[in-house]
Amino acid sequence: MYEDVLIERLKNLHSDLMCTGDEAVSLVNFMTDCMEDKVTVIRDLYFHDRSPVKVINPQLVPHGRYKDPADELIEVSLGYDSFVKNIGSQATGVLRRHTKALNMFLMILSLPAPYSSILYLRYFKQLSIDDTCKELYMSRSSCYRKHQRAIKILNKKMTSAS
Fold this sequence. Notes:
Elements: H1 3-11, H2 13-18, H3 20-49, H4 52-55, H5 69-110, H6 115-124, H7 129-135, H8 140-161
């Protein structure tokens, strides 16, 4: 893995670890609501606009884009299916991000001290580099050096785990 990609993932570590509950559940609930809306819309289109009683009169037969009443219902159904599939992909993406972040977090915790402490404070606790130095009673140059070394060790560990 490239170090810049690893650092970007580390920057998002906290939010990716904490996102799974509310965000994924709300997406799944939204998906369920959309499927219920699909049934309602199709039913309403059929019974209110295209019911056989209304189509008996030739003047009420639709003109324009939808010559056949079934075409409109099929297009609405396919549109909803595509929309729900996209929402499902978003929910899967949230869960996948959470899983990757959890694996990275566990690897950070398994690093030797002080590397695990530096990465934990920087990316999970989201402390600045100055606050991390103060927390660990470390000089700024030592903290930067050990931070870079921690990134290299984590990168090796993640590459070997893949």
